[in-house]
Amino acid sequence: MYEYIKGTIGQIGPEYVVVENNGIGYQILTPNPFVFSAKIGSEMTIYTYQHVREDNIALYGFEKDTEKQMFKKLISVSGIGPKGALAILAFGKPAQVVQAIEMEDEKFLTKFPGVGKKTARQMILDLKGKLDDVITEGKAEAAAAAELPEDSKDITDSAALHEAILALSALGYSDRELKKIESKLANEDLTTDQYIKKALQIFMKS
User: Fold this and answer.
1) CB atoms within 10 A of CB 160
2) Domain of 98: which CATH number?
3) Which long-range contacts (CB under 8 A, 24 or more apart) does 175-181 make?
4) What is known of its domains (predicted)?
5) How do beta strands 56-62 and 16-21 pair?
6) If you write DSSP's letter for every residue of 176-206 in order, what string do you get?
7) Measured between alpha carbons, how far is 204 from 5 in angstroms, rounded to an integer?
8) What is the arithmetic mean of pLDDT over 60-67?
9) Which own/partner pairs from 52-56 qualify as long-range (CB within 8 Å, at least 24 positions apart)?
10) Which pLDDT tens digit goes with each residue over 85-140?
């Protein structure tokens, strides 16, 4: 199985990107192909998952490893296949999906394409309490980042809050969203995990 492919973004289709590596073009299905539009001709790493069936072999790819981990969790749910999991990730950040499942928010989950009440309930039954590794992966990605983006360095002086903001960034939240959430958490005295949990709750309500 391919863990990731590092190569040049050569082509973008409605559901896929083509990554060229050593003269081979890999067609990789991805939730949002057009996020790679500005990176055509650039080298980057795509985190991949190979899905094999009797009649088809497909390669799925993600910009961040957290998305890949969430994808693997989603396809483990009865009734959700790879295409359904891609649709969910195309419309929601991994952190939003995690929080909706942990809070048993069926109404939020049914907003995703192809997810009805029955599937939403199955997602909760199968995944609630089993998604800590997705958040942990986000924290690992945050730790791998040397620092916050230049325009975000001033948003926090707290080490725990700083780490939480990095983890939320790895889970897909923008600098603009993070600055807003930081102002709401600035006066709190929490651990990193507590900051993340509280931030996710605020994001879900907004």
Assistant:
1) 17
2) 1.10.150.20
3) 175/149, 175/151, 177/203, 178/152, 179/152, 179/155
4) Has three domains with a flexible linker between the domains II and III and assumes an 'L' shape. Domain III is highly mobile and contacts RuvB.
5) unpaired
6) HHHHHHHHHHTT----HHHHHHHHHHHHHH-
7) 33
8) 92
9) none
10) 999 999 888 888 988 898 899 999 999 988 999 999 999 999 998 888 787 666 56
Instruction: Locate 175 and state its tokens.
Output: 């600098």
User: In this predicted structure, what is the pLDDT of residue 35?
Assistant: 82
Same domain, 195 and 170: yes
What's the sign of the alpha-carbon dihedral 154, 155, 159, 162?
negative
CA Rg, the chain, in Å? 18
Q: What is the distance between the alpha carbons of residues 108 and 101, in angstroms, rounded to a whole number?
A: 9
Phi and psi dihedrals of 33, rounded to 5? -55, -35
In this prediction the pTM is 0.71
Which amino acid does the sequence have at 75? I
Q: Using 50, 70 and 90 to split pLDDT, how confident is the model at 54?
A: confident
Say how far apart CA 77 and CA 80 lie, in whole Å: 6
